[in-house]
Amino acid sequence: MNIDPAVFDDKRRMDAALFAAVDRASLLGSLTAALGAWERRSFVDDEVLLFAGMAVRESGHAGVDEAVFDWWHAAPTLARQEIAADFLWGYWHSAGKVHAPSVTALLDSLDALPSDSTAYAATLLALFSVATARPANLSAPQSVRVRETLLAHLERLERSGQHPGVAASLEYLRP
């Protein structure tokens, strides 16, 4: 069974049971086609991609974050980073495990991103999911790096007044 990539366009059509009923290769093919379709649009609906990530995570397909990472890195652009990060924000929301190289790549990318970009905001939110989910496979030093990096960027957001919704989420990480 194949999934129509258009399913990833509407959060009301996303169903973890539907995703669970297909094999991994079919899911990944449909997902990467959908991510590519988002790349060709004039806007990215972060909420739809957040819900897509959550539904795919709930479907039980593990390691989808690695495939999304590979898609982003095949032709890295701001748009691809935003799309991948929006999806990972949802996928990592309650993650027991994460693809650690994806986490490292997102951390390493933050300082190079324009702070007023939606890719920057999406990257912070994806990393916030990692910080709050506390995945078992993330090393203690990497977990500390995620948290410290997010707190440093929260200070930057507060100084600039940019992305107030993201800043409000990151506030949760303060001691």
Task: Spell out the blueprint of helices and strands.
Layout (H helix, E strand, L loop, with lengths): L15 H5 L3 H16 L6 H13 L5 H11 L3 H14 L8 H10 L8 H16 L6 H21 L3 H7 L5
Which terms would index this structure?
mainly alpha
Question: Would you write up a description of this structure?
Answer:
This protein is an all-alpha fold and 175 residues long. The protein is built from nine helices and no strands. It has helices at 16-20, 24-39, 46-58, 64-74, 78-91, 100-109, 118-133, 140-160, 164-170. The mean pLDDT is 95.
Describe the structure in brief.
This protein is an all-alpha fold.
Structural class: mainly alpha
Helix content: 55-70%
The total strand number stands at 0
Proportion of strand residues: under 5%
Task: Catalogue the unreliable spans.
Answer: none
> Mean pLDDT, rounded to whole units?
95
User: Oligomeric form of this entry?
Assistant: single chain
Order of helices and strands: HHHHHHHHH
Largest pleated sheet: none
Give the termini separation: 48 Å
Radius of gyration: 15 Å
Spatial shape: globular
How many helical elements? 9
